[in-house]
Design brief:
The protein is mainly beta. It contains two helices and 32 strands. The protein has helices spanning 6-17, 290-294, and strands at 40-41, 59-65, 70-76, 82-89, 93-98, 101-106, 112-116, 123-128, 139-145, 148-153, 158-163, 171-177, 190-196, 199-204, 207-208, 214-215, 221-226, 231-234, 245-246, 254-257, 266-270, 274-278, 283-288, 304-309, 315-321, 328-334, 342-348, 356-358, 361-366, 373-378, 385-386, 398-405. Strands 1, 13, 14, 17, 18 and 19 form a six-stranded mixed β-sheet that branches. It is globular, with a radius of gyration of 20 Å. It starts with 5 loop residues before the first helix and ends with a strand.
Length: 406
C-alpha cells in the first residue's frame, strides 16, 4: 500500500531541526575538537581488503524528488517492476546499503540519518546529524562497521559516528576531527568514505566557501583514519600539518572497487578522469585519462557525474554533462589505453548518482521533465541497445540517487 509522504517528510524536518545530541559540550560556535588526539605518524598498514560492492543484487533502492518532497522506491531488476513511494525521502536524500544495513542520508539542510528495514522499508529509527554552530552539516557518505555508522560531513570538519546497535534508538557516539585537513575556511569538505579493515579513507576537497566553493587546490586528497583510535594518519610527519594522500584530479564524486587488484586494496575513483588508486601503496594512475574526455569536448572538472564497470571489467560507462551543461551523455571508455571514448546515449538529464550496471544491463535515472524514470540499456549489444522499448520506467517523482539491494 502506498504510504503518504507528507507526514513522513514533516517528521524528517522536525528531526533535522531538533537540537543536536552531540557528544561535544563546546560552545555552539565551536565546530572542531580542542585537544584532539595527535595524528598517527606514517601510513596505515592495510591487512584486509577494502569493502566491496554487493554481489548479485536483485533490486535498486531509488530516492526520488520534485525538490518539494521526496520518496524511496524499489526497482525489481529481473522484471523492471517498480514499487513507488514506499518510504521517506527528502529533497536531497542518498540511499546506502552497507554491512547489511539500509540507510537513507538526508543531506543539505535536513542533516539526518534514517535506518530502514531492507525488506519492508519500515522506518526503524532516526538520528539527527546536526552540528553546533553549522548552518547544515550536510552528510555526504556513510559506511557501517559493526554497530557504528561513520558519516562524512561536507558542511562540518568531522566524521560523525552513530551507534546503531539498537536500530530503534540510534545515538551519536562521538566524532573524528578533520579540522587539521582544512583549508583557510576551516572545513576540508569531506565526501567519499572507503573502508579497508580498520582504516577509513575519506576524500577531502578543500573548497573556498567564500568563493562559491571554488577549489583551493589542483587535486583532491584521501585522508586515512585509524578507526579503533579515531585518529588521522599523517602520511608525511616531516611536513607541517597533517598530510593526506593526493589524488590526480579534482572533485572525487564516486568510487568502486578495482576488480583488477586481487588484494582488494585498489579502487577506481571518478575525478577529472577515472583514477586507479592503490590505497596500500598510496599511488594513483589514470585508468581513463582526462585527455580522452577533453578530446570530445569534456575538459571541465565539473562535468563527469557517475560511473560503473561492465561485467568483463573492460570498459567504464560514465555519465557526464555536456560541455554546455544542456544534457547528460552516457559514454563508454576502455580502461588503461588511449582508445577514443564512445558515446552511448545523449539527451538525458540527471541530478545525482543513478548509474548502476547489474549483469549485462546498465540502469540510469533520467530526470528529463517529460520522461522522468529509470532507463536501461542491454550491454550485450554493440552499441548498447535500449531495453523496455526505449521508454523509461516511470518513478513518479524524478529519480535522484540509487543503490543496489539484495
Amino acid at each position: 500500500m502506498r504510504r503518504p509522504l507528507a507526514p513522513v517528510l514533516a517528521a524528517s524536518l522536525v528531526l533535522a531541526c531538533a537540537p543536536p545530541d552531540d557528544d561535544a559540550s563546546s560552545a555552539a560556535s565551536d565546530t572542531s575538537d580542542t585537544g584532539a588526539a595527535p595524528p598517527l605518524a606514517g601510513p596505515p598498514e592495510l591487512d584486509e581488503a577494502c569493502v566491496g560492492e554487493l554481489s548479485d543484487p536483485t533490486r535498486l533502492a531509488i530516492t526520488t524528488t520534485d525538490f518539494s518532497t521526496g520518496a524511496l522506491s524499489i526497482l525489481d531488476l529481473a522484471t523492471g517492476e517498480l514499487h513507488k513511494d514506499l518510504a521517506l525521502a527528502t529533497t536531497d536524500s542518498l540511499p546506502v546499503f552497507s554491512d547489511g544495513r539500509l540507510i537513507v542520508l538526508h543531506r543539505y539542510t535536513f542533516d539526518a540519518l534514517d535506518l530502514l528495514a531492507p525488506d519492508s522499508l519500515a522506518l526503524l529509527g532516526q538520528q539527527s546529524l546536526a552540528v553546533p554552530g553549522v548552518q547544515s552539516s550536510n552528510p555526504h557518505a556513510v559506511t557501517v562497521v559493526g554497530d557504528l555508522a561513520h558519516v562524512t560531513m561536507f558542511g562540518a570538519p568531522r566524521v560523525q559516528i552513530v551507534d546503531i546497535a539498537d536500530p530503534a534508538r540510534p545515538s551519536l557516539a562521538g566524532h573524528i576531527d578533520l579540522a587539521p585537513l582544512a583549508d583557510a575556511d576551516g572545513n576540508p569538505e569531506a565526501h567519499l568514505a572507503i573502508r579497508c579493515g580498520d582504516t577509513l579513507f575519506v576524500s577531502v576537497q578543500r573548497l573556498d566557501q567564500n568563493q562559491l566553493l571554488a577549489p583551493t587546490d589542483t587535486r583532491d586528497h584521501l585522508a586515512p583514519i585509524d578507526l579503533p583510535s579515531r585518529r588521522l594518519h599523517d602520511l608525511d610527519p616531516a611536513s607541517p600539518g597533517v598530510q593526506a594522500m593526493p589524488l590526480l584530479g579534482l572533485w572525487a564524486r564516486q568510487w568502486r572497487p578495482d576488480p583488477a587488484d586481487p588484494t582488494g586494496h585498489s579502487v577506481l575513483i571518478l575525478t577529472t578522469g577515472l583514477e586507479r588508486v592503490d590505497l596500500a601503496q598510496r599511488t594513483s594512475t589514470w585508468a581513463v585519462d582526462p585527455a580522452r574526455l577533453a578530446a570530445i569536448g569534456l575538459a571541465d572538472y565539473q562535468l563527469p557525474q557517475a560511473f560503473d564497470l561492465d561485467a568483463e571489467h573492460r570498459h567504464a560507462y560514465i555519465a557526464s554533462y555536456s560541455a554546455d551543461l544542456s544534457q547528460v551523455l552516457l559514454l563508454r571508455a576502455s580502461l588503461d589505453d588511449d582508445a577514443p571514448i564512445v558515446e552511448v546515449a545523449r539527451g538525458l538529464q540527471s541530478v545525482g548518482p543513478t548509474l548502476e550496471i547489474v549483469g549485462d544491463t546498465l540502469w540510469f535515472g533520467d530526470v528529463t521533465p517529460t520522461a522522468a524514470g529509470m532507463r536501461a540499456w542491454d550491454l550485450r549489444a554493440d552499441p548498447p541497445t535500449p531495453r523496455f522499448a526505449g521508454t523509461p520506467i516511470a518513478t513518479g517523482l524524478a529519480p535522484y540517487a540509487a543503490t543496489p539491494l539484495p
